[in-house]
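User: I've been trying to design a sequence by hand for this structure and keep getting stuck. Would you show me what you'd pick, starting by listing the structure so we're on the same page?

Assistant: Good idea, let's start from the same input. This is the structure you sent:
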């Protein structure tokens, strides 16, 4: 059995994090500036871009320092994914093999049986995962039998002693409340890209729809898992805008998945060139600096990364991964290899934090 670290609980009031100045070389600020810059939510696009484009070694060093100041252990969160309802989605997200607008090989299926989902969760726990994330290829949640069944899945996976996460598309406030009552730990709802690039990728909803659901999730006291994708043809400016908007959320999302596009045949983005691994390192480092306390998750596209590139992402502040043989419809890195890499690096899988009190949005 893999060793489990205790989860880090709460913020570290005594910690003096390094503030990031507008200087891309990140000189240290004076102590008073440092204190006032802790957990900022007011990053400008220019500031974020300066961080993202700063010399790579300085960027990684800076992120590593912020990470050390805010994360007392060397834990990595292992989150396993299961697609509980696959394909046939009415949205036209250009990256997604599950959209009915595209012609990938993904087979459409109905909502999985409860027992099968529970079995998959038990297996994931056995392998060392602390969080179980269930994804559905829905544009939005519809009230009725299927949502009730997902709520039962959340309840019963929670009873296994795992953190639960779902990603079901758009939610109303009432639906978010029902997920909260079922004991859901986290809701995944990615921004995916910048508001300015959004309509190049998706035409069936807009960026504001995404923000609305994120707001409902927060109001329901469920923790947020919100990130995005790189490698879809967006500019550094778009990447910076996405990170700026993530960091403007108050509190910051507890999990920030950074995905590299998995270019799937039959999707409009099938011919996109592979992401430069160092761009992923930059995204992880910048996310770490902007959102010091969040779990930055090195997400889709990890299978295409060398061990060395993954090490750089961990050095840059990534402290969460998707763990398990498949993501939703595509392959992920091998579990055995992941465990070996973590052992070699001296990183330990995080234990589930099932007692965590619900985060409260700020009054502002
Ligand atoms: N339908 C729900 C939604 O869109 O919110 C939940 C499932 S959706 C597949 C979850 C997220 O997976 C997307 O928002 C996107 O960020 C990510 N994703 C989907 N396909 C991807 C791909 N080919 N490469 C990288 N990330 C992908
Ligand atoms: C997230 O940010 N990435 C995951 C999860 N949240 C749901 C999904 C990645 C999907 C990659 C393509 C696939 O396997 O279908
Ligand atoms: Fe549907 Fe989600 Fe895929 Fe978009 S990303 S097509 S909403 S499953």
């Amino acid at each position: 059995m893999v060793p489990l670290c205790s989860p880090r609980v709460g913020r570290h009031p005594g910690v003096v994090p390094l503030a990031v100045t507008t200087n891309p070389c990140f000189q240290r600020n004076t102590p008073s500036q440092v204190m006032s810059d802790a957990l900022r939510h007011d990053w400008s696009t220019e500031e974020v871009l300066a961080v993202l484009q700063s010399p790579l070694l300085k960027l990684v060093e800076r992120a590593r320092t912020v990470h050390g100041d805010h994360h007392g252990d060397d834990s990595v969160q292992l989150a396993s994914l299961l697609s509980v309802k696959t394909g046939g989605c009415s949205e036209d997200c250009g990256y997604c093999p599950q959209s009915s607008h595209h012609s990938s090989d993904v087979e459409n299926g109905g909502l999985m049986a409860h027992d099968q989902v529970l079995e998959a969760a038990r297996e994931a726990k056995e392998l060392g995962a602390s969080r179980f994330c269930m994804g559905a290829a829905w544009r939005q949640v519809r009230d009725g039998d299927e949502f009730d069944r997902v709520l039962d899945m959340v309840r019963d996976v929670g009873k296994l002693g795992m953190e639960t996460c779902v990603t079901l598309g758009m939610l109303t406030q009432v639906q978010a409340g029902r997920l909260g009552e079922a004991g859901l730990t986290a809701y995944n709802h990615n921004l995916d890209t910048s508001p300015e690039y959004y309509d190049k990728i998706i035409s069936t909803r807009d960026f504001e729809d995404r923000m609305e659901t994120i707001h409902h999730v927060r109001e329901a006291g469920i923790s947020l898992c919100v990130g995005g994708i790189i490698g879809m043809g967006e500019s550094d400016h778009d990447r910076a805008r996405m990170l700026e908007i993530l960091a403007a959320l108050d509190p910051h999302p507890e999990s920030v998945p950074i995905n590299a596009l998995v270019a799937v045949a039959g999707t409009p983005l099938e011919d996109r060139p592979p992401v430069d691994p160092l761009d992923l390192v930059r995204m992880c480092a910048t996310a770490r600096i902007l959102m010091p306390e969040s779990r930055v998750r090195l997400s889709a596209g990890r299978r295409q990364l060398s061990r060395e590139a993954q090490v750089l992402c961990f050095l840059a502040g990534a402290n969460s991964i998707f763990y398990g043989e498949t993501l939703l419809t595509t392959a992920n890195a091998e579990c055995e290899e992941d465990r070996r890499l973590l052992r070699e690096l001296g990183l330990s899988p995080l234990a589930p934090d099932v007692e965590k009190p619900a985060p409260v949005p700020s009054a502002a």
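That's my pick for every position. To get oriented when you compare it with your attempt: Residues 1-37 have pLDDT under 50 and may be disordered. Residues 81, 97, 135, 167, 188, 190, 227, 257, 259, 262, 299-300, 327-330 surround DTB (ligand 2) (CB under 6 Å).
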